[in-house]
Amino acid sequence: MPLLDVRNLRVDFRTVAGIVHAVDGVSLSLEKGEIMGIAGESGCGKTTMALAVPGLLARNATVPGGQIIFDGEDLISKSEDEMRTIRWRRVSVIFQGSMNAMNPLKTVGSQIVEPILLHEPRTPRREAEARAEKLLDSVGISKKRFSNYPHEFSGGMRQRAMIAMSLACGPDLVLADEPVTALDVMIQAQILELIKVLCSELGLSLIMISHDLSVLAELCDTLVVMYAGRVVEHGRSADVFREPAHPYSARLMNAFPDIYGERVFTSGIPGYPPNLIAPPVGCGFYERCPERLAGCESTRQELSETSPGHWCSCLYPRRDKEGGGIING
Ligand SMILES: Nc1ncnc2c1ncn2[C@@H]1O[C@H](COP(=O)(O)OP(=O)(O)O)[C@@H](O)[C@H]1O
Ligand SMILES: [Mg+2]
What we know:
It is a single chain. This protein is α/β, with parallel strands linked by helices. The protein has helices spanning 46-52, 80-86, 98-101, 108-119, 125-138, 155-167, 185-202, 213-219, 237-242, 247-254, 318-322, and strands at 4-15, 18-30, 35-39, 61-70, 73-74, 91-94, 173-177, 205-210, 222-227, 230-236, 304-307, 310-312. The model is unreliable at 259-266 and 323-329 (pLDDT under 50). The structure holds adenosine-5'-diphosphate (ADP) and magnesium ion.
């Protein structure tokens, strides 16, 4: 049984302009100990997907359909009280931008102690503090910094502290939303290495979100590519990188920053993702796709297996074109 099994999840946001279909039928499944990457440009629904799992969606969100089966139980049907016992203890989140996620008025140490005391109220404070110090140590922060405030930390250290905080209650699953995006390349590499080591030492399952594929390349076992609220491709990380089957994934790879060049997402893909208030009838990438063909505009293709364990939602997956298969005859 997978640890997390998201089935046909839909998340809408009510806005004055209309209903935003931010997540539009996403399914994915994560085994225990697996590290999964979720890639896609900004606005594709990655954060919404991740926040739905621990029940942290914004107030204007509704979930009109789908299931989030975690360890055999559907989280969608749980009450807020029940979710509170699951959050941090079983599923924790490393948020995008640690400065906003941390309380500027409290010491870093106390912010790690707090969730421990909240979720395990019988733990003596001294013991919780000792655990917090050990956690800080495991992310490479000296216990001398326990009483520092977040602004006294560098961006990299704050992100390390966020990681320590997310691990405070010994979760089974960690969702990391763009955990290194704001950091410079050297620090990014250190934090990614830290995450990798912690995952293997603690047997954690991790979902790592990034718009930057180079961040996911090394770390992840499996990769999911999202576009316009849907999964367009998933498979083993190496397979998706070597042979992206969806034209969108392939473009995302080309936008891959060179290790010697610009780190930022420079080349990009011309055009913009579609308006999620009125999503396209057919393929979401149609407007921008240089490889579009007959039928793409009107057919909403479901995921199908292009090679063992490799799934893609393009009507004309790239393998067919390059291999002279269906398309080129
Ligand atoms: N609270 C909200 N209210 C209205 N729209 C939202 C809200 N949060 C996200 N969205 C919209 O949902 C879509 C997906 O956003 P998001 O999940 O943040 O994407 P990503 O993390 O991939 O950048 C976007 O169109 C975004 O504008
Ligand atoms: Mg996001």
